[in-house]
Every structure is written in structure tokens, then in C-alpha cells.
Write a structure and sequence with these properties.
The protein is of the alpha/beta class. The protein is built from 10 helices and 15 strands. Strands 3-2-1-4-5-6-11 form a 7-stranded parallel sheet, sandwiched between helices. Strands 8-15-14-13 form a 4-stranded mixed sheet. Strands 7-10 form a two-stranded parallel ribbon. A hairpin with a 5-residue loop joins strand 14 and strand 15 (291-295).
């Protein structure tokens, strides 16, 4: 008999890769999508047999993490063996602009899901998408499951509540509820407002002559960047354990935004030279002298997270999980995907 999984945030980067993985493993997947004026399912359209007809392994339901009764009905109707809560307001910068909404969805939304499981008495396994942003102003390097948290944004603070309420319900009500503390993971499906995708799209348009430059924020910010499809496999492995627990998924390497920009241009045969400091820093193409990168204060966070690098030892030892895609390969995957799509779209 096929396992049934319920996935919130199924139309996002991680949700789409997770849906693929689960269907490949023989699951029946039920996805939660928010009702809006547009049907935003482009990341999972390829999973349909026909654009208007879902296949027998994938079903979509309108729902919202702000609606407790909806989540209760969903859990009772679907009776999932596994629940993956990936739904969130996931943009850190945006969370400073809509902090209350971020808290409602990312923090209280998780509580609503856990209450739905508790109230219905369903025996299921619950995965909560946690984040390396919990560490914020880091207390130690690298960061693991025991590193103290110091969130530096409304997004991180909301996710911290979600992290602790998962642990609390696990201990108080004996729920199988686990946190995956995932460090940055990117792909060609990443939203275009996130810095890595902003770079891969911007660099492609510059090299193709469509745009002249891109504006970025803190070029010195260091992140632990992995490849999203590998990280969603880690999510699945977390729910295959016999006992619930919390796991860091990371690559153990850190690179600056500046390095990402340099590698992105290198992929397309260009080299970038930097000059100036702080908000006056610019990047120019070595070949032509064209200014292609500038720094804009509007993209700086009110409270910056300077360095994130994860220790995934526990995941390796317990789950048999480890990252495979190197930083340079990740950048190449993203840039080449955008370059080809933009070139084709503009008949270049």
C-alpha cells in the first residue's frame, strides 16, 4: 500500500523537489496551496499528466497556515503518514517589512499544524522546515544541533518559535515531530528575489547584453550554500528514523556573496575586478571595463548575519546523508539554466 504524504509549500523550490522525490518513491502526495488570483504551480506543472489534470499520485488542496479549521479538516481527510511543513514567508528581508504576517505563518502556522495532529489523534510523522538563520549572531563556528541560537530577523525569530514548539509538542504529547535545520540551499528553481538567483539571472542578462548591471547588498556576507534537491532527500531521511530528532543539513563550507558573483561571471567566460569599499564598491568586467555590479544600502538588513557554516556530522552518522554538489557546480547549474532560458526567450 502506498504511503501518503501531505506537503505545505509544495509550489516552492523545496516543495517541488520534495514532491518529485516522494512520487519517485511511490508516495501519494497531497499538496497545500494558497488560493490567489493566479495559479502559481509552475514548479510542479511537469508532474501533471495533463496541464489541467493531476496524475494519480499528486493532489492539490486549497489551504492556509493561518486557518486552523482548514488544517484540521485537511489532516482528517488526507490521513497522511508523513507531513512536511515547508510553507512559510521565507524571505528574510521581507520579514522586516511584514513581521506580523511572518510570525502568523512561520510561527503560529506551525503550532496550528501540530494542534491539528494532536486534536485528530493521527499517528503521523511531522517534519518542520527550520533554518540556519536561527543562529544569527553566531556563538561558535561551525554551527551544529547544540549551538546556541541568536536570531537576527523577524523571520528567524518566528522560525525559532516554530523550532521550540515542535520540540515541546514532541516531549509533551509524544508526537513524532522533527526539525531540519537547513543551511542555505539553492537551485535553478530558487525565487528570483533571493540573492543567488538574482545573481544568476542578472549575470546572464549582462553577458547577453540585456542589462548593464546588478545592485546587491552585503558582498561580505558568508553562507553555507548547498543544492536543494539533495537537501530535500535529507528531509525525507529525517522522517525515516525510528525516533524523532533534530538535524543540521549543511555542506560545511562557507563562501561570500562576492565569491558567488565572481564564480557566476566565470561560468560565462568573464572575470570581474573589484574596486572601492563598502557601499562605494563596484565590480567591473576585466575584458571591457564595464561596471556590472554596485552596492545598494537598501539591500542591507537592519541586523546582518555575517557568517553561517554548518556541521552536518549528526546527519551523516545517523541518516547516512551528506551533500554531493560542490559550490562551483551549484553556481554553474544555476547560471547555465538561467542563461539558456533567457537566451531562448529573447531569441538571441
Amino acid at each position: 500500500m502506498k504511503k501518503t504524504a501531505l506537503v505545505s509549500g509544495i509550489t516552492g523550490q523545496d516543495g517541488s523537489y520534495l514532491a518529485e522525490l516522494l512520487i519517485e518513491k511511490g508516495y501519494i502526495v497531497h499538496g497545500i496551496i494558497r488560493r490567489s488570483s493566479s495559479f502559481n504551480t509552475f514548479r510542479i506543472d511537469h508532474l501533471y499528466k495533463d496541464k489541467d489534470i493531476l496524475n494519480e499520485n499528486l493532489f492539490l488542496h486549497y489551504g492556509d497556515l493561518n486557518d486552523s479549521s482548514n488544517l484540521n479538516r485537511m489532516v482528517e481527510k488526507v490521513q497522511p503518514k508523513e507531513i512536511y511543513n515547508l510553507g512559510a514567508q521565507s524571505h528574510v528581508q521581507v520579514s522586516f517589512e511584514v513581521p506580523e504576517y511572518t510570525a502568523e505563518v512561520d510561527a503560529i502556522g506551525t503550532l496550528r499544524f501540530l494542534d491539528a495532529i494532536k486534536d485528530t489523534g493521527l499517528k503521523t510523522k511531522f517534519y518542520q522546515a527550520s533554518t540556519s538563520e536561527l543562529y544569527g549572531k553566531v556563538k561558535e563556528i561551525p554551527q551544529n544541533e547544540d549551538t546556541p541560537f541568536h536570531p537576527r530577523s523577524p523571520y528567524a525569530a518566528a522560525k525559532l518559535y516554530a523550532y521550540w514548539i515542535v520540540k515541546n509538542y514532541r516531549e509533551a504529547y509524544n508526537l513524532f515531530a522533527s526539525n531540519g535545520i537547513l543551511f542555505n540551499h539553492e537551485s535553478e528553481r530558487r525565487g528570483k528575489t533571493f540573492v543567488t538567483r538574482k545573481i544568476s539571472v542578472g549575470v546572464s542578462k549582462i553577458v547577453l547584453g540585456i542589462e548593464k548591471n546588478i545592485s546587491l547588498g552585503n558582498l561580505d556576507a558568508k553562507r553555507d550554500w548547498g543544492y536543494a534537491p539533495e537537501f530535500v532527500e535529507g528531509m525525507w531521511r529525517i522522517l525515516q528514523t525510528s525516533d524523532p530528532a533534530d538535524f543540521v543539513l549543511a555542506t560545511g563550507e562557507t563562501h561570500t556573496v562576492r565569491e558567488f558573483v565572481e564564480k557566476a561571471f566565470n561560468v560565462l567566460g568573464e572575470e570581474i575586478i573589484w574596486s572601492g569599499e563598502g557601499v562605494s564598491e563596484i565590480g567591473v568586467l576585466k575584458r571591457t571595463g564595464q561596471q556590472v555590479v554596485n552596492v545598494n544600502e537598501r539591500y542591507f538588513r537592519p541586523t546582518e548575519v555575517d557568517l553561517l557554516i554548518g556541521d552536518y556530522t549528526k546527519a551523516k552518522q545517523t541518516l547516512g546523508w551528506e551533500p554531493k554538489t560542490k559550490f562551483e557546480d551549484l553556481v554553474s547549474i544555476m547560471v547555465m539554466s538561467d542563461f539558456k532560458k533567457i537566451k531562448q526567450r529573447n531569441n538571441l
